[in-house]
Amino acid sequence: MSKVVFAECRTYSPAEVLAATQRIFEALDVDHLFRRTEKVLIKPNFLLPSGDETAVTTHSQVLLALCRLLLDLGCRVAIGESPGIGTLAACIARKGLGEPLKKMGVSVVEFTRPEPVPLPEGRAVKSVPVAAELRDFDAVISAAKLKTHCQFYFTGSVKNLYGCLPGMLKPEYHLRFVETERFNRFLLDVHDAVKPRLGFMDAVVGMEGEGPSSRGRAKPAGFLSASTDCAALDIEAMKAVSLSPTLAPYLQERLGRPAAEVINLGKIEKVVFEPPAKMESVLSTIPLPAGLRKVLKRLVVPVPVFSVPPVCKLCGNCQKICPAQPKAAVIEKGRVRFNRNYCINCFCCFEMCPHKAIKLSQPFLMRHWRRLKVPSL
Ligand code: SF4
Ligand code: SF4
């Protein structure tokens, strides 16, 4: 049976984070999970260059604690990522992690080249183009940040691995799997291609509301957690913050198997995170004829609404990240022009706008969503 271990951790003080991580390692017998001299890659959630205070990315102290303990086990350690926006170097610099990592001898690996990993049993694809750089490592740890997600309801240690697709492959696959259901199956394929040996969740402070980026709100949850079973980790972490795992489509498959054993170290108080105001994940789990789904989608799925300057700084991130062909968001004549007909509702622009210049429209059914009762846990 899988185990999910939670450790109370109220602050990001280096000593508290290290002690909580150490307790989790002991409970999961991590000494025996990684062998001396193994090369271990830690995959954080570095969605974009962002400071620790925003709760958008995995906290520096969590990463440093993981590095410290893995180094103590005799492993060789690296941090690897392909951010949605910006470079890994910019993410590391923004967090002030350059020097501490250098002193510890931890290398930094930006994912640049794809290499197909055959996946004969894949749900959406039979081969996944994950970063070739992963081949240089014996083991991967998905070091996630607990956040709500306006498209997938939740992002944790499974969804975090989507960043193992290098560069523009991420928006490309959003385009390839416009249907949320197929994209969710693809997320599981990415997870299986990467085969993380450990999932780790930074939930000392997580994110609620319209995550996973600037529209969400930072909220303390007061714990770190981990498991060798990433989907089980995400499910139990969601329960701990009162989010319903039944609303995260990519976790449905795991929900159909026996639940993990949960071990609490210290006081893990159940907190209530506000879910994203969106119901496409529910819609996508209901078997409906394609035509009816399309009509309902119009009623329930928001579209991005772009502010004009000066709120919009015309940085061009939305145009750059937009995976639609032709692009649904382009800068023209001093403002962002949006074409709804091209939009595939991936919300990459919304996630990546660094100036909060994009809102999501409130379609009719969505306005009433908050009155509907989310299944209790
Ligand atoms: S990403 Fe945001 S600030 Fe930048 S151009 Fe687009 S809407 Fe404007
Ligand atoms: S406009 Fe925004 S939501 Fe629409 S396809 Fe482009 S990035 Fe996705």
Task: Give structural notes.
The protein has 377 residues and is α/β, with parallel strands linked by helices. It has two domains: 263 residues, Rossmann fold, CATH 3.40.50.11440; 92 residues, 2-Layer Sandwich (Alpha-Beta Plaits), CATH 3.30.70.20. Strands 1, 2, 3, 4, 7, 8, 9, 10 and 11 form a nine-stranded mixed beta sheet that branches. The protein has a two-stranded antiparallel ribbon with strand order 5-6. A two-stranded antiparallel sheet has the order 12-15. The protein starts with a strand and ends in a 10-residue tail after the last helix. The C terminus is likely disordered. One iron/sulfur cluster (SF4) binds next to α11.
Task: Please identify the top-level CATH class of the largest domain.
Answer: Alpha Beta
Average predicted confidence as pLDDT: 90
CATH T-level fold name of the largest domain = Rossmann fold
Judged by helices, strands and strand pairing, the structural class is: alpha/beta
Bound molecules: iron/sulfur cluster
Number of strands: 15
Characterize the quaternary organization of these chains: single chain
Keywords:
377 residues; alpha/beta; Rossmann fold; Alpha-Beta Plaits; 2 domains; nine-stranded mixed sheet; two-stranded antiparallel ribbon; 15 strands; 29% helix; binds iron/sulfur cluster
